[in-house]
Amino acid sequence: MTEQTPLRKSSLISDQEAENITRVEELAYEIKVQEVMTPNPITMTASMKMQEVLEQFRVARISGAPIVEEGQLIGIISIEDLIRCLIKSDLEAEIQKYMTRNPFTVKGDDPVVEALKMFVSTKVGRLPVVNKEGLLIGILTKGDITRGLLKALQQDYQTEEVRRYRASHLFEDIESERTSLILRYNIKAGDFTHGGEASSKIKRALSRMGASPQIARRCGIATYEAEMNLIIHTTEGGVIRVEIEPHQISIDVYDSGPGIKDVELAMKPGYSTASEKVRELGFGAGMGLVNISRCVDIMKLESVWGKGTRLRMKIFLKKEDTVGEGHAAKSLEEKR
Amino acid sequence: MNLEQIIQSLDLKLLTEQKPFHEIQPTTGYAADLLSCVMTGASRGGLWVTLQAHSNIVAVAALLELSAIIITEGAQPDEATIQKANDEGVTLLSSQQDTYRVVGRLWELGIR
């Protein structure tokens, strides 16, 4: 079996690589050797000729084989041993002259990380895999581990795809006169640290449900501005409620005070009542409500000074843009 | 012009995690310190040049899917902001130059 690049164990790794390795390392603890090894490998006996090793390696395209005597593993013969033999033109010799006796082994139910450690400490190219009784069940190379981990990573990726697919078909199998999904977020007043988190989550939910990037972006911007208004201007915070239906998204943002003194003035571009401190953070440009009106199809702002504010918005979805009915998934399939 | 070349040409310091920057092609740019203006004006995949370095810039860049934020005049975001940027996949770059000069250099490099 040809060797593949082993997992990098150098200490000089970039942050990005470190991030990738974290999941791989997790998997190295989760996956067992027997899941990635090559089972039932070609075996040989100690009394066979080196000539046969050459033939077997060539025909089966392998680079090592365990040597077995009555089911018990007694040694291993590798391409390196074969080369030593070839240099001496000694192909008539028996395997036992060139094989490595009592080779290092791993157990089938060991986690892959144990095998990795052994590859590093022993510098061998392949490890015979044995069961609890010590009988040979497979052979493991670093290439097998790489392939096994890549396969597991691929499965992770597919899981996210399935999740996305399911969400994008959410409404398809549910029958009612009017089906909708409601998301609610409580926003605390003055909580700048978490500013934008609710709108990010709303945008992500819409993307998963199959909203087009433009719809998700418009909704993200509108809810972001509304979210920041709750953080900047309210006394007690407020609520963002998003109702998703296949053909429309209705966003309702309400709070219990202090309310807007002059709604018409508040809608004017550049008008803001934000404090100096908040302006230093880059808020209070007086563009928030203007931005919202640009992103939504219908916007209704009602406020009573001393009571609170309610902002209602709607985004209508065209037939090809509906969410939760599998449109995004269909267009994805067409692309493939 | 890809982001890796821009980082080198402008001698920008990477504050967040490494990414394959040579694959990222910023289409255009936007410069402002008022977040709502950025919300209106910045385009998807564009660069944003600003003096703001607090955590709210991350949410803006994530929502707009910007290719990177260039923070000017050496303003330093705090650890929590950098952490949040890494979580959201937002790239933060730092320049010692002021916004005027950074934008001028980007324009020269063909980012228009």
Summarize the structure.
The complex is a heterodimer of chains A (336) and B (112). Chain A has 336 residues and is α+β, with helices and mostly antiparallel strands. Chain A contains 13 helices and 12 strands.
Helix content of chain B: 25-40%
What characterizes the major β-sheet of chain B? 5 strands, mixed
Q: If helices are DSSP runs of H or I spanning 4 or more residues, what is the number of helices of chain A?
A: 13
> What proportion strand of chain B?
5-15%
Whole-number total of structural domains of chain A: 2
Task: Please state roughly what percent of the residues of chain A sit in beta strands, choosing from under 5%, 5-15%, 15-25%, 25-35%, 35-45% or over 45%.
Answer: 15-25%
Give the low-confidence spans of chain A: 1-11, 329-336
Adjacency order of strands in the biggest sheet of chain B: 1-5-4-3-2
Give the uncertain stretches of chain B in residue-range form.
Answer: none
What does the overall shape of chain B look like? globular
CATH level-1 class of chain B: Alpha Beta
Order of helices and strands of chain A: HHEHEEHHEEHEEHEHHEEHHHEEH
Helix content of chain A: 40-55%
Q: Shape of chain A from CA axes?
A: elongated
So what's the CATH class of the largest domain in chain A? Alpha Beta
Protein name (chain B): DRTGG domain-containing protein
Pfam family, one (chain B): DRTGG
Question: Can you describe what's shown?
Answer:
The complex is a heterodimer of chains A (336) and B (112). Chain A has 336 residues and is an alpha+beta fold. Chain A folds into two domains: 15-152, CBS-domain; 176-335, Histidine kinase-like ATPase, C-terminal domain (Heat Shock Protein 90), CATH 3.30.565. Chain A has 13 helices and twelve strands. A five-stranded antiparallel beta sheet of chain A has the order 8-9-10-12-11, covered by helices on one side. A four-stranded mixed beta sheet of chain A has the order 1-7-6-5. The longest helix of chain A is centred in the middle third of the chain and has 27 residues, at 142-168. The two termini of chain A are 33 Å apart. The model of chain A is unreliable at 1-11 and 329-336 (pLDDT under 50). Chain B has a single domain, classed as HprK N-terminal domain-like (Udp-n-acetylmuramoylalanyl-d-glutamate--2,6- Diaminopimelate Ligase, Chain: A, domain 1), CATH 3.40.1390.20. In chain B, 38% of the residues lie in helices and 14% in strands. Chain B has helices at residues 3-9, 35-41, 56-64, 79-88, 99-108, and strands at 13-14, 29-31, 47-50, 68-71, 92-94. In chain B, helix 3 packs parallel to helix 4.
